[in-house]
Amino acid sequence: MFKFPELEHRWLNYWQEHKIFDKTLAKPSPRGRFIFFEGPPTANAAPALHHVLARAFKDLIPRYKTMAGFRVERKAGWDTQGLPVELQVEKELKFRGKPDIEKYGVQKFNAKCKEDVWKFKADWEKLTERIGFWLDLDNPYTTYESYYIESLWWILKQVYEAGLLYQGYKVVPQCPRCGTALSSHEVALGYQSVTEPAVFVKFKVKEPQKHGLPANTSILSWTTTPWTLPGNVALAVGENIEYWCVFFEQNYKDFKAGEAYIGAGDFFTKSITGSIAYGDGTSSGYSEPAQASISDIINGSPNITILKIRGSVLSNLGLEYEPLFDIKPLQKDKSYHVYAADFVTTTEGTGVVHTAVMYGEDDYELGEKVGLPKYHTVDENGFFTKEVTKWAGKFVKDKKVEQGIVADLKERGLLFAEEPYKHDYPFCWRCESPLLYYAKPSWFIKMSELREDLKSANEKINWYPEHIKHGRFGEWLEGVKDWAISRERYWGTPLPLWVCQECKKVICVGSLSELAELTKDKNQESRIKNQEFDIHRPFIDEITIPCECGGTMKRVPEVADCWFDSGSMPFAQWGFPHKAGSKEQLANSYPADFIAEAIDQTRGWFYTLLAVATLLKKAGAVKEIPPYKNVICLGHINDKQGQKMSKSRGNIIDPWEIIDKYGADALRWHLYTANQPGEPKNFDPQAVDEVVKKTLLILMNVVNFYEMYQDHAEAPRVAPKSDHVLDRWVLALVTKLTSDVTSHLERYEVTEAGRELAAFVTELSTWYVRRSRERFKAGGTDAGRARTTLGYVLRQLAILLAPFTPFVAEEVYGRIKGGLESVHLEDWPGQSQPTTDGQQLLADMVKARVEVEKALAQRAAAGLKVRQILGSLTTTVAFDEDISTIIAEEVNVQKVIHGTETKLDTRINEELKALGLVREFCRQVNALRKAKGLTINDRVVLKVGTDKAMAQVLENNREVIIKATLSRELQVVTGQHYRDKLAIEGVEEITVEMQ
Q1: Model-level pTM?
Q2: Integer Cα distance of 776 and 769 in angstroms
Q3: How many Å is the Cα radius of gyration of the chain?
Q4: Could you give the residue numbers annotated as active site?
Q5: Ramachandran quadrant class, 212 (left: phi over 0; alpha: psi -120 to 50; beta: rest)
Q6: In this predicted model, what pLDDT tens digit does every residue of 937-995 receive, in sequence order?
Q7: What is the Cα–Cα distance from 804 to 800, expressed in whole angstroms?
Q8: How far is residue 31's CA from residue 436's CA, in Å, rounded to a whole number?
Q9: What is the DSSP string of 143-162?
């Protein structure tokens, strides 16, 4: 079998030796620049199969655009900071969290991060090169470099001076393991489906009779986060929701006799089967108490008393309830009352929301509005504080702790009910710890103010697949929240914010030179200007600035979200605006014409690119958004059963195993054509094997066939002239193919283009080459026309394949003598449609093949093999003589007749039987020639020993046999036995010998 991996290694060496990539960049680019942005990977882990997917798509479009007349620079990039790097180092050092880092030393820890980030750099570069992804790896941008961080500082200063950067005390998603807040787009990356206990809790009303309520009244509330209950300070109700106070005279389900419960009316109708009859009430106060026997609805149920109360009234009653836990700092005047809030619904739960100010965004806003105490019962690492005495120092999301809280409530008679609840819960996208919504000070960027700007920019982006535009991405922009930009971590871009320790004045520094001037410390100024210090922590923290008030300004301790690093790459990759030449470089490389990444980047890189560019547009620093015009959004790769690949499942596939066995081109082709880019791909190595067998090997067999007859001349650059119907057909077909593939690629429809190419390879082999074999063998003028036609078609095909399968395309191009040093230096063919005659021929050939299929089906039904010639075929279409001849040869009939139905004449006379024997004889002789290693240049004396009847048949067709078997002489005798025996149905014995 043809060994594609060996072929690819040969061409890799050739490209490197002849600097082909560099030459593609140096070739004329009459259409100007085409800008590609490389989304930076992090090299602290080995690349996996899904990285091949992204890099294959990233490579294809720039290759195509280069051949189409553009200059496409492809600058590599490395994402080198942030939580992904820190967590890997923590794991290596066996740290359990931030305290271990502080003890180890920030300087040592960051030095380890800087070292660790390059651990798999060689692997990434090796894979990038091996799959044929042409990328400038010698001049990459690196996010931890000072020039890059300076650019980030400049961006933050523009944002700050535009009034879009602020510090706020907000509830943010906190990772207790990493000890830092996450942005909303980071949270979106880590949702998992979980089943957790949902508890219904009884909040006992103090002095209920004072408010006209039954004794022993409790307000029912529902929560899926029992760990927040010690922090409860209030209950919230909806103003326009109708609440019931229901008193039960007997036990019923979870309702206890002699107790009254307050909840939404909808909750009670769901909890008690059927409807409950009650008196009419008013919306402004209590209804008249109504007695109703539930036994009218459920036999044996107790009598109940129902009191209706509008939420607006309920919140104004001044109800106070008993705290669930004794937390002294929370016990203030306004604590443990019922308040109205617009976020309350009856969709889930009881219509009453338990409120813990510090652990929910809505809770915090309500607490701000009514003046509730702000006090943490949980620390930033997710452990209960000392005030929660029973679980002090315990992790709040520990199942045993949550079960303990529920058990404690049950023991004290405060648990109404408990049920399992399946829902999506956010986990840290890196360490997979459950996130806690936690009130804390953080630095935010006002993205919510730019919602309309973001949406407007998105309208200008061409998304493929198109539904992402207003679907996953558009919906994200519609609900965009302020960006929590700060991280309480170590290895990242230091926020360039200095705060006075006395007057609290804040300044944002936009560059190192600006910082050097502000510090007023000659030693520090010298170190900065001479670049003698690392811009990272802890060194940057040593730089102070004198304040106008006489105080000292120190840098805030936070670093920036690492997504800010990658989202700023259009500007920071050049060190804009500080680095020499960066303004010209940005002008020549912004915005991007094309980017590609996986679908999770809709809330990652795709979003942050747009967010940063929109911020700079708002600040007046750039004129144009969006920062990219076209994006291919890729689905994820799963195993062949559709399961996510993971080490724990043992279903991870090493990309090197696939590449080493089948070749990079086969893998690339499968990833392009298996299904649409945005759909998940269930990866099965067998499917890559099928690419080899059904496309690549077929193509190489065509090339092998061409080489048997080529005259060592360069394959034609211009379509040759030929009157033969097959030549005219295949030339029209390749013209149409060129037009279709070009149109698809212009629309970023990679899958459609790839499938068109695969179909053409099949057509070329199974129809053109197979039907033209005898022409090639015959020699002469017609064979020359066939040869030049096939050479031209293969040359065109190699060019069209070059962006998809760069190695195989190079092999085809080289073996047919394409003319240039590399197929990748070729210009993309001009786009045109077949002539009117060509289009008609394509349509007629489709109809002809339909007739052929019908006829072959009739042959099969009659049990007649194709090698047995028949008299005639009647077709429903009137074909010209050329196509009729092709149909006759394909179906093996003497003539084709036009009629009202497709009908094969299956009658066999002696003449037809003899012709069938001749055809089978020639077929077996040629198979024997091939087995003996003979070529088309080997002319033989063919000796045949057989019976009299067969001998006569052979003699009657002597010239046909000599031509078909490439013999120079045919000798037929009877009674003679030769070395090789043939088996022909209906012939007693026949042997042959070739000399």
Answers
A1: 0.83
A2: 9
A3: 39
A4: 40, 79, 563, 601, 605, 644, 647
A5: left
A6: 889 999 999 999 899 999 999 999 998 899 999 999 998 889 899 998 888 889 999 98
A7: 8
A8: 53
A9: TTSHHHHHHHHHHHHHHHHT
